[in-house]
Hints:
Layout: E1 33-37, E2 48-51, E3 53-55, E4 70-78, H1 100-114, E5 118-124, H2 127-136, E6 140-146, E7 154-160, E8 164-173, H3 185-193, H4 211-220, H5 227-230, E9 236-244, E10 251-258, H6 266-291, E11 296-302, H7 310-317, E12 344-345, H8 346-349, E13 358-359, E14 364-365, E15 368-372, E16 378-384, E17 410-416
Parallel strand pairs: 4-5, 10-11
Antiparallel strand pairs: 1-2, 3-16, 4-17, 5-7, 6-7, 8-9, 9-10, 11-15, 12-15, 13-14, 16-17
Helix pairs in contact: 6-7
Amino acid sequence: MSSMLGGAKLGALQMIDKARISSLPVLSSCGLYRIRGFSRAMSGTVSSYLPEFVSVDDKIWAVKNISEGSIIRIASYNILAQAYIRSTLFPHSPAHCLKWKARSQSVLALLKSLEADFLCLQELDEFETFYKGNMDKHGYSSVYIQRSGRKRDGCGIFYKRERAELLLEEVIQYNDLVPVDEVPAESYEVEEKETSNPENCRDSSPTKTSGSQQTNLLDDRGDPDDPKVRLKRDCVGLLTAFKLLEPPHHVIVVANTHIYWDPEWVDVKLAQVKYLLLQLANFKDTISTKFDCRPLVFVTGDFNSTPGDEVYQYLISGISQYDNGYSYKTNTKEASSGSPIALHSLYAYIGGEPPFTNYTPGFTGTLDYILFSSPNHVQPIRVLKLPSDESPDIQGGLPNENHPSDHLPIGADFEIH
């Protein structure tokens, strides 16, 4: 629910680079999903929808059968953690759409209908109590990392056991950007108690604090200009390596992350993304050596960054005009200028980023991405169709009866050679 966090601050995120938004086909009357058939409304249980993946070949949007290479479907989705839902934060949403009983079943139905081989979820809570077991019944194994401190959500990767074997996994803790021996113990203690940060209005605190309370708590937690305090945002990521079970048994790396939200803290977001790509490059090297292969890389997540901003530019080009002044190193590679791994953004690669992946009255814009490496060996052949701002299923803002999160899922079928 990135859009609800910064209020007026997030208005700045709406300055999207128009040149990067193409006239991708969008839905008119059917919204994001083609209707398979209704059961009961969300106030009862679930409406059943079928996501529509459309061909990207020559921009002819018809289903195409591909016989060459292996084909995998990867989807990414910020599902909106139930722990962050407050009616005061989503006054535009029907009350029944915010209740766990309805939302959980709706999210679950949507995840299954995506029919992805790899599902990368952000803001994933209730993992042990709900999602892990229910997805297991449908043939998915999973890897999960919960955020640090008292945060209830995290990142998860679900994969079809019949399609892939997990080879290795690694957790990314962005708090590691600050060495433990340099962080005052009290900063951890205060950070866990804070409820004032607009982000933490989404967290486990039962009520929102007043403006004066927010200011006091922000002051109490330490100097936000001190990197030892500033970099500790409790954000996480996952790195996983898989062997595809069908010949020729390609090895792929799938990463999933959720980057810090605040548009004014570009330095923190950029530090996290640089750290992610450094760790990813190291992980890829490890997989290459251990399994004698050249793995293809897919990176998914809610990057809380819009097309054209500093974080986005670094992801796709390795170039940043912003010097955050931080120095850090990973186990084998030291941070330096330029990206340690070349990546291409899925939707930009096929013509342009979508106008939005997050849709609320307070903020509408693109924050979610799937990136991939080695276009000579992997090509998107179908992409999940996204709605236009005139689609009736999103009117009034998300979540609603049709979409259980304030974000939209994104995804594609990739052909691997």
